[in-house]
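Quick one: structure tokens for this chain, please?
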Amino acid sequence: MKIAIFGGGFDPPHLGHINLVKSACANINPDKTLIVPTGNAPHKKTFTPYETRFKLAQAAFIDCPNYEISDIENSGNSSGGISYTVDTLRKLKGEYPSAELFLIVGSDQYESLGQWKSPEEIRRLCTIVPGPRDAFSSSGIRGTMKRKRYTHSINVAIICGELSKKWGLSPLMSQNAYVAGILHDVMKECPDEVLRGIVCGNNLGEERKVDIAETHERKLWHAVAGAVYARDTLGVSEPEVLNAIRFHTVGRAGMSDVEKIVYIADKISPDRRSDTSQELRRLAFEDIDLAVYTAIKAGIKKVLKKDGRVPQYTMDGYNYYNNKAITVKKECT
């Protein structure tokens, strides 16, 4: 039996982590892939509670082969509560005495292996599988957002996982929803001049072009900029992820399942307190299209109340999902 092991703070888990595990497992072909959120790591502080990081890992690694999220480091260990890799490997060897263990690490971790506790024993207990260092980093994602915004983003990512499961998305689509969810607000706290420059540059292609109404509304800029940042800086190439980030504020007609889930997850994050959010939380798990329609309708009403301009994307989305809602209503009567 082959067991691949990948541990980390996962604060948050990101596409670099996911791709590293997939690439390594393609070579290892494991019978089981254990994803191990660190408990109390000796060299890296985590900012988010263990239970939240565990849920993030559940959503993030869903498309990895034969995966299982392990809580083996949740309660600390015999080394004064510190979660040392060697202790985790000893436990796993005790649970799976006949298994061949493979420890997946990034290239930066591999280079510092000599500084870990009992590195020679680690090498005896497992085969170390190094992978490339990715442009992504957890601290790089956290560093773009203030604490409140980061908390919102991880809440959205977790809800994306819950909604993906509820509506039967494939593992890859569920992964895409998670990635878009964790990144949807990555540029929200960027300076106005930077956001304005990206929006005016409008280099997302015809499908994602910027509506004239969006150029006049600062609170919509971060969605355009977020898609550009994800593509150009973080190397995200999956169109479904880029679209979900791009349209999570304005919506549009005919959104994909991933887009709808990210759009609604943003509206029903626990940090949202409005009456509309409460209603959307119920609808999101009963009728996702009706939830989208209700959210778009509420958004239009809010904009018009302030004499604002409604983007054409939003109006198209209203008409599209209004028609779907009417069709469903007729079918039920």
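Residues 2-136 form a domain with the Rossmann fold fold (CATH 3.40.50.620).
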